[in-house]
Amino acid sequence: MSIEPVTELGSGGALRVPRARVVPLSAPPATYTAAAERYLTGAGIAKSSARIYRISLTTWGWMVAGQPAPTGWARRGAKPPAVPVSVIDAPALPQVLAELAAARADEMDADTVNWELSIARRAIGWWQRQGWIEGDPTIGIERRPAPPDRTKALAANQIAALWRLDAPLREKTFWKMLYESAARADEVRCLNVEDLYPQDKRGKITAKGGATEWIHWQSGTAQLLPRLIAGRTRGPLFLTGRRAPAGTPTLEVCPETGRARLSYRRAEEIFEESTRLPANPLARPEDIKDLEGWTLHRLRHSALTHDAENGTSTPMLPARSRHASVRSLERYARPGVDAVARHVAEHDPAARRRG
327 exposed, middle or buried (CB, 10 Å; 0-12, 13-18, 19+)? Predict the structure, then answer.
């Protein structure tokens, strides 16, 4: 960045403030999409996070082009119109983005909207530091107040029903590892065979922000892993059932089988569909298409809630969840249905008299 010299006085004889002129560190990319890719590869974004960042930046690409971003299934494979990166500095864009963002916030949950806004602002800040743009058109767009986390932990009988499902080995191992490790679904999904230390019942993951951390599992996972690995020594742990299509990134393909890594979307779909009847025990099997199952996040939530109910110490809970703030654990410290039932039974005066 350089400073233009002051060469004249402003109106009324006041000294004119020197104006900063940003010198680009490199040639600006031609389009917004190209700028997004340059950010993902040049800003140190972890590979495990790049997919989510790309989806969010693509969403903002539609709005930068002045169009509503597609939602739901329409997002799959949709590409925003090609617009020059210089459009970000257009004077009218902040108002356009504010209106489009407000409309989108009415359709999406607050957490998704806030996360997309955060990613957009990180990218914009990086582009500014490169000297490609000057302003931030998202200034004035406020984060949406997120509702409290009401995700309920699964009860013990629901967890037991999950383990009784007639599911394929891949799903059994994935679900069991999620619950026993209390890890995030995408952290487990992105595990490679070479990241595992089976003798220690632990594995090395790339966590939020790109940090390398460890997750630990128990005997249930340990018994399933050898069958799932089936002698493989490297490559993605959880694979699709067919060979990877041409153009799939090398890191996402098993070098021994040629199959691709299981996607988060497909893993979530399978879990939701598989748990529709356990989640609705009074429903009839023929109504399964109209039911809703559980989300993968509920396994992590359940594991941490059950830990808290069973007296896991305060220092251990953050270590197990890998939350930086103890306050973040409040959502898991809410007793579940089994804990409340035990409390009521233990304080039942009639039961005490019978004893």
Answer: exposed
**Closest by Cα among 186, 187, 180 to 159:** 180
First to last CA, the chain: 80
Q: From the centroid of its chain, how far is CA 186?
A: 7
The CA-based dihedral angle spanning residues 346, 350, 354, 355, taken in that order and rounded to the nearest 10 degrees: 20
The encoded tokens of residue 230 equal: 């089936």
Q: Does the model's pTM come out above 0.85?
A: no
pLDDT, tens digit (0-9, with 9 covering 90-100), for 50-59: 888 888 899 9
Which tops the pLDDT comparison, 332 or 71? 71
**Three-state SS sequence of 9-34:** ECHHHCECCCCEECCCCCCCCCEHHH
pLDDT score, position 163: 97
- Nearest 10 degrees: Cα torsion 238, 265, 165, 231: -10
Query: CA triplet 349, 354, 355: central angle to 5 degrees?
Result: 95
| Amino acid type, 304 | L
pLDDT for position 263: 93
Chain segment 273-327, per-residue pLDDT in tens: 999 999 998 888 888 888 889 999 999 989 988 888 887 776 777 778 776 555 5
| Cα 340 to Cα 153: distance, rounded to the nearest angstrom | 12
User: What stretch of H or E contains 242?
Assistant: strand 239-243
Rounded Cα gap, residues 151 and 333, in angstroms: 12
